[in-house]
Design a protein that fits this description.
heterodimer; A: mainly alpha; Rna Polymerase Sigma Factor, Chain: A; Arc Repressor Mutant, subunit A; 2 domains; 0% strand; B: mainly alpha; 8 helices; 61% helix
Chain lengths: 184, 189
C-alpha cells in the first residue's frame, strides 16, 4: 500500500463548488434546448435568448432541488415554455414578429423566398395548435427527441405523448397539404 | 398512404429546419453574468422587502400595546385596590384618629406604596367607602369623645399575646377500647 499517497492533502471541494460545477454542466448541455423551446414560441432570436437566460437564472436559484439531470431538463423546458408564452402575451410589440419569419443566421446559405414562405406556413400551422399539442410537436422536432424523451421532459405518459403527436401531425398535415402535394 | 407519410416527413423536415437555430456563442457567459447580477441585487431586494415588513410588525406591536394599556387597567388595578389587606390591629392600639384615617383612605393606610402608584396613574382615587358613611363614623366618634363619663376600655395584654399555632400542644387522642360487659353479649333489644 502506498502510504505516501494517503499522506498527501486532498483538494478541498466544498458543496457549493460541486453545485456550481453541476450547474455549469447542465448549462452547457441544455442551453440549446431551452433556447429552441423559447424560439419556437417567440420566433425572435434576442427575445428567445433572453427568456432562456431567465429560465437558467431561475433554475440556478433552485438548483439544489434540480440536481438530477432529467428533473433539471424537464423543469427547464416547462419553465422556458411558460416564460416564452408569458412574454409573447405581454409584449405587444411582438405582434409584428408573429407572422414574420426570421432567417436563421447560422444556417449557412440564406433561405430563398420559397423556403421562407414554407417556414411561415409551418409556423402558422404550429401556432394554430393548442398548447398541449404544440409543445409536443416542438420538442419532438428538437434534437431528435424520441417519444420517451418527450414524455420525460413533460412529465406526461408516453402513450399520451404519442396520441398528442399523432393528432398534431394530422392537423398540421391538413393545413399543409399543399406542401406534400408539391413534394409529391 | 405513402403520400401521407411523405407529407408528414416533409413537414417534420421543415419544422426541424425551422427550429435549427443556433445560440449566440456568448449565451453561457451572459447567463453567468445575469446570475451574478441577480446575486448582487438580492440584498437590495431583501432590504426593500424587509423594510415594509418591519414597519408593519412595528405598527402591529404598537397598536397591540396601546390597546392593552387602555383596556387592561380597568379591572385588574381596581381589583388590586380593592384587595387591600387589613393591618393586624390589636385592640389596645385602636385609636379613633387611626380608624378615621383608615376609613378615609383604606388603601393608603394599608399600602402606602401602592397608593402612590395608583395615584400617579389615576388622578382621583376610587371611592371605596361612601363619604356619607365616613362622615357618620366621624360624628359618632366625636360624640363619644365629647360625651361626659365616657369610658375607654383598655384591652388586657393577655388577649394580645396569644400563642402561635406551632406553640400549641395538642395531647394525643386516646381511645379506650370498649370492653363488653362480663357475662355475654348483653341483652338484645
Amino acid at each position: 500500500m502506498n502510504v505516501g499517497a494517503w499522506a498527501q492533502p486532498l483538494p478541498i471541494v466544498t458543496a457549493d463548488e460541486n453545485l456550481e460545477r453541476e450547474f455549469e454542466a447542465r448549462l452547457a448541455e441544455s442551453s440549446r434546448l431551452a433556447f429552441r423551446v423559447a424560439y419556437s414560441v417567440l420566433r425572435h432570436r434576442e427575445d428567445a435568448e433572453d427568456v432562456a437566460q431567465e429560465a437558467f437564472a431561475r433554475a440556478y436559484r433552485s438548483f439544489r432541488s434540480l440536481r438530477d439531470r432529467d428533473r433539471f431538463r424537464a423543469w427547464l423546458v416547462r419553465m422556458t415554455w411558460r416564460l416564452a408564452i408569458d412574454r409573447l402575451r405581454s409584449d405587444r410589440r411582438r405582434s409584428a414578429h408573429e407572422q414574420a419569419v426570421e432567417a436563421p443566421p447560422e444556417s449557412g446559405v440564406a433561405p430563398d423566398v420559397d423556403a421562407r414562405e414554407r417556414q411561415a406556413h409551418i409556423w402558422a400551422a404550429i401556432d394554430a395548435l393548442p398548447d398541449s399539442l404544440r409543445v409536443v410537436t416542438v420538442l419532438a422536432a428538437i434534437e431528435g427527441h424520441d417519444l420517451k424523451e418527450v414524455s420525460r421532459l413533460l412529465g406526461v405518459p408516453e402513450g399520451t405523448i404519442k396520441w398528442r403527436l399523432f393528432t398534431a401531425r394530422k392537423r398540421m398535415q391538413e393545413k399543409l397539404r399543399w406542401m406534400s402535394i408539391e413534394k409529391g | 398512404m405513402d403520400v401521407d407519410r411523405e407529407g408528414l416527413s416533409a413537414i417534420e423536415r421543415a419544422l426541424t429546419q425551422a427550429l435549427d437555430v443556433e445560440l449566440s456563442p456568448d449565451f453561457a457567459a451572459r447567463v453567468r453574468q445575469r446570475i451574478a447580477e441577480e446575486s448582487t441585487r438580492a440584498p437590495v431586494w431583501r432590504a426593500w422587502w424587509m423594510v415594509p415588513a418591519a414597519a408593519a410588525t412595528l405598527a402591529v406591536i404598537t397598536v397591540g400595546v396601546s390597546v392593552r394599556s387602555t383596556s387592561v387597567p380597568s379591572t385588574p388595578r381596581l381589583l388590586a385596590a380593592r384587595s387591600m389587606t387589613v393591618p393586624q390591629l390589636h385592640p389596645g392600639e385602636v385609636h379613633p384618629n387611626r380608624l378615621l384615617a383608615g376609613l378615609q383612605s383604606p388603601v393608603a393606610a394599608a399600602h402606602p406604596r401602592r397608593t402612590s402608584v395608583s395615584a400617579a396613574s389615576r388622578k382621583e382615587l376610587e371611592v371605596l367607602v361612601p363619604r356619607e358613611e365616613i362622615e357618620m363614623y366621624r360624628r359618632v366618634i366625636a360624640a363619644a369623645q365629647k360625651a361626659p363619663g365616657a369610658v375607654v376600655v383598655e384591652a388586657p395584654p393577655v388577649i394580645v399575646a396569644g400563642p402561635f399555632i406551632s406553640q400549641i400542644v395538642i395531647d394525643p387522642i386516646r381511645i379506650d377500647p370498649i370492653v363488653p360487659p362480663a357475662g355475654g353479649e348483653g341483652e338484645r333489644q
